[in-house]
Amino acid sequence: MSSSQNYIDKLTIEYLSSSSYCHNDISASSVDIDPDHIVFYKKRLYAAIKQHINGLIKKLPTTNKDTHDCILTAYIEKKIKAFRIDDFADLQNTDLSNSNIDELPSNYVDDIDDPNKLLYNDTKQTTSTLDDFVIIKTVKTANAPIYPKEKNIMNKNFRYKGVKKKEN
C-alpha cells in the first residue's frame, strides 16, 4: 500500500468515522496515574520518548509497530500542531501590536454639534456633461494594496518556548 493511500486512510478515519471509533472522548481517556509510579519510572519514560523521537527524526524503518509507538507518534503530531498554532498566534499578536491603531480614518468627523448638517448637507446641483457619460478605462489607485507578510514559525524563539532552562 502506498504512502498516499495510507494518508487518505488516515484522513478518512480521523474525519469521517464515528467518534466512538476514534476514541476522542476526553472523559473516557483521562486516567489517574499514581505519582509515585511516575517518579519511579520517570527516567525510563524520558529515555523511551527520546528514543522514539530520535527514530522519527532519523526516519528509521520499523517493521513491527506496536500500539505504544502509534500513540506516541500521534501525541507528538498533535503537540506539534498545537505548538505551530500557538506560535502563529504569537506572530499575529506581535504584528497587531506593532501596527498604528491610533490613526483615524480620513472621513472621521470630530465636530458633531449639528447632526442635521452632517445628515442633510447641502448638495449642489450639477449639470450633466458629455464627460459624465464617458467610460474611463484607467484605474488610479492612491496606494498599493498591502498584502500580509508570510510568517516564519520555524523561528528560534519558538523552538524552546515554554521549556525551562537547566540549572547547573
Describe the structure.
The protein has 168 residues and is mainly alpha-helical. It has a domain at 1-29. It is built from eight helices and no strands. The protein has helices at residues 3-16, 19-22, 26-29, 35-40, 42-58, 67-98, 115-119, 156-159. Helix 5 (42-58) crosses helix 6 (67-98). The longest helix has 32 residues, at 67-98. The protein is elongated.
Using brief descriptors, characterize the structure shown.
mainly alpha; 8 helices; 168 residues; 0% strand
Averaged pLDDT, please? Answer: 77
Overall body shape = elongated
Distance between the termini: 50 Å
Helical content stands at 40-55%
- Care to count the β-strands? 0
Broad structural category:
mainly alpha
If helices are DSSP runs of H or I spanning 4 or more residues, what is the number of helices? 8
Percent of residues in beta strands: under 5%
Largest sheet: none
Unreliable segments of 5+ consecutive residues: 24-28
Question: What string gives the helices and strands in order?
Answer: HHHHHHHH
Radius of gyration: 30 Å
Give me the secondary-structure topology.
Elements lengths: L2 H14 L2 H4 L3 H4 L5 H6 L1 H17 L8 H32 L16 H5 L36 H4 L9
Helix pairs in contact: 5-6
In short, what is this structure?
The protein is mainly alpha-helical and 168 residues long. The protein has eight helices and no strands.
